[in-house]
Amino acid sequence: MTRRSLLLGLAGAAVVAVAGGWIATRQSGSQTGFATPAAAADAEILPDIPMGSADAPITVIEYASYTCPHCATFHKDVFAPLKRDYIDTGKVKFIHREVYFDKFGLWAGTIAGCVGAPKYHAVSGMLYDTQKEWIGDAKEATIADNLRKIGLKAGLSKEQIDACMNDQARMQSMVATFQKHATDDAIDATPTLVIDGQKYSNMSYADLKKILDAKL
Questions:
Q1: For the chain, what percent of residues have pLDDT higher than 90?
Q2: CA distance 112 to 120
């Protein structure tokens, strides 16, 4: 899978790669106590967590990785006005789908998912907004500690964070869900948008606005 200026090196990471049209995860050792599982064949496929009106005439799906700097830029420069102009006004239903290039992105997704649907998008946004800060020096211990701090800030207890970050079954479902959706939509880069079933590469807000306005 194409990585767009990934902030993290691959050493010691659970590398995500495309093989034969399917995405496989290679697990490596962890010194943090955080789980990093490979997907299980029978893992549950998790439901999307939509933002916006269920009756919105347009559905926008964003595939993004928490460790992708272009995704952080997209969140700031494109998602913010998209939410203001189209999601909050009932014109677009938005779905964020996580892509895992490395175990750190998976850990970040676990923190976002641990807070539950009502706070998911807020914590997801926090992860993009503070991406450089929580990645820090890109060392396991630094990232683990910083993600725990984000979880605490989001209202989770230390016990809840520990339980979520070591929930093998949940992480297997996250990887399996990523595999299925990314394969179904032929995702090979992040960020990628799927608008009413049609795939688009990363773009400016002005270009996205033209597409949405034409559909409306």
A1: 75
A2: 5
